[in-house]
Structures are given as structure tokens and as C-alpha cells.
Amino acid sequence: MASDSNRQQPLSSNEMAARLPHVKQPSIHRSQIEAIQSFNRESTLDVKPIHAYLKHYGYLPYSSSAPNANEPVGEEITSALKSFQEFHNLKVDGVFDNETRTAMTASRCGLPDMSAGSVAFSTIGPWDHLEIRYNIGPMSKHLTTDVCEAAIRRALDTWENAGVGLKFTPVANNDNPDFMIDFREANDPDYSMVGNVLAHADFPPGFSVVVDNPPLPLHFDDDEHEWFDGEAANKFDVETVALHEVGHILGLAHSGVNGAVMFPSVSPDFKLRTLAPDDQQAITNLYRTSTDPQE
């Protein structure tokens, strides 16, 4: 249990709107970032793809404008790069180098990153009920439906077993599910996954940034990424990514702890099956604070 001094209060709907107006902006394709040469604050070159990436993922304000190609990169982008580097456990110097480029082009969740201040985990806001109803739609073309659904169910079970009273109940798509899971084309009409975006979800009602009302989306890109149940070269594990996206459905934001379920990026040929201490603290903080008497 987190101490009272470390508890982060959930964001209000107005705070969410103020921090994430950019969430539905088109993502930046990794090839655009790979083409940018290394630079520092004094460099003069076209850094619009880097600016767009930093803006999309919450490191620059929505009102920010990219510098012209004949102007120095400047302090705003340098400061945003430092924040990105700190969040991703890189050398913090504001220089766009090979390590920073690699981190920016990694396959990742489509939702923005947010710092949690003095604690590693970050929470947005909870559901007002603990039995969460879901519906499973079309599954990946790369796996049989049974294998894909079983991987998703295991991810749900992991969060169910987190000890805060959550329960996931499957329902028909016309029976008012709280969220719906399916695999889609990268050019998803509710949230573009074109580029290096593996999947996206949304936060609970009152904190949502993708849809106005349930059912919330939990969508996998079945177009530009290939899926697998477990570890395989150049393929992504369904359960690992589902575990992450369900965390968002429950109200968790991204974590800056590499190895946590809620870290924003993931490599192919990798699987994660358990919550890290950071994930456990986040879900406990959010739901125990919301449903239990204050300690």
C-alpha cells in the first residue's frame, strides 16, 4: 500500500482534456524519425517529425509550433527531449542521438506518456464499479481465434488477481460491455495506429480521451505488426500487449520503469506475464484509494 504522501490523485476530466488534446493526432511513422540526423539545440535542420512525435506523446504542449528548418532547434525541443530521455531511462542531455532515435522508433502503445512526479507509477482515474464487462470481437489473422482469445483472457486474469477486487465478465456486444477488444487495420478510424503503434486503449469513463462513452476501445494493429502467443522473431506477444492495454482500461497511465507492464514500448520476441511491483502499486493505489476507507 502506498503511503498517503505518495498517493497521486486521479486527474479530473478537465485536467485530462488540458493535458491530452493531441491524443487523436496522427502518429509519426518510424521511417520519418529514422531519417533525422543527430542534432542538439544549436543545430539548424528540419526537425518537424521529432517535434510532432514529442507533441503526440505529451512532451510538448498542443499549442507548440515546430521551428523552421533554417532556425536553431532551440530550448523547447531540447527540454522536451530531456523529458523523453528521462522517462525512457536514457542519458539526459537533450541531444537527439542514436539511443534516443532507437527509443523513439520502438514499437509502442499509442497513448501518451505522463510523468507521475515523485513516484514511478501514474494513475488517471478508476471505474466506479469493480465488475468490468467486456466483449471480444475479431481476432488476429496471424493466430487461431482460440489461441488469441486465451492469451487475452490470461491478461485479464492477471489484473483480476491483483488483489483489489476486480472481476472481468464476458458479454455479448449488444449487452452493454464496458470495453470491446478486437484486431484492426492500422488506420483505425477512432485512433490511428499507423507507424510504430502496436495497440491503443482508453481510460475509464470521466477520464476517457478516445471515445465519449463506453464501450471503450482496446484495439490491436493487425496490419503493420505480426502477432504470436509467446516469443518469436519479429512478432509481438498478444498477452504482453493485452496486459498493458488492459492497464489503461483500468485507469493506469504509462510508467517510466523499464520492465513494468505499463512501460510504453515493447520489443518483438519478448513476453511479460506478471505485474512488476510498480504496476501492483499503481493498481492498488488507484482502487484501494477509491473503494476503501482512508487509512
UniProtKB/TrEMBL annotation:
Binding site for Ca(2+) 1: 222, 224
Single GO biological process annotation from the record: proteolysis
Keywords tagged on the record: Calcium, Hydrolase, Metal-binding, Metalloprotease, Protease, Zinc
Gene Ontology CC annotations of this record: extracellular matrix
Binding, Ca(2+) 2: 178, 212
Domain Peptidase metallopeptidase: 123-289
Region feature (Disordered): 1-28
Domain of life: Eukaryota
Keyword Nucleotidyltransferase: no
Positions that bind Zn(2+) 2: 109, 244, 248, 254, 262
Molecular-function GO terms, alphabetical: metalloendopeptidase activity; zinc ion binding
Cofactor-binding details, from the entry: Can bind about 5 Ca(2+) ions per subunit.
Cofactors, names only: Ca(2+); Zn(2+)
Keyword Cell cycle part of the UniProt annotation: no
Ligand binding (Ca(2+) 3): 221, 224
InterPro entries referenced in this protein's UniProt entry, alphabetically: MetalloPept_cat_dom_sf, Pept_M10_metallopeptidase, Pept_M10A, Peptidase_Metallo, Peptidoglycan-bd-like, PGBD-like_sf
Family matches, as Gene3D superfamilies: Collagenase (Catalytic Domain)
Positions with a binding annotation for Zn(2+) 1: 190, 200, 219
Active site: 245
Biased composition (Polar residues): 1-15
Protein name: Matrixin-domain-containing protein
Organism: Thelonectria olida
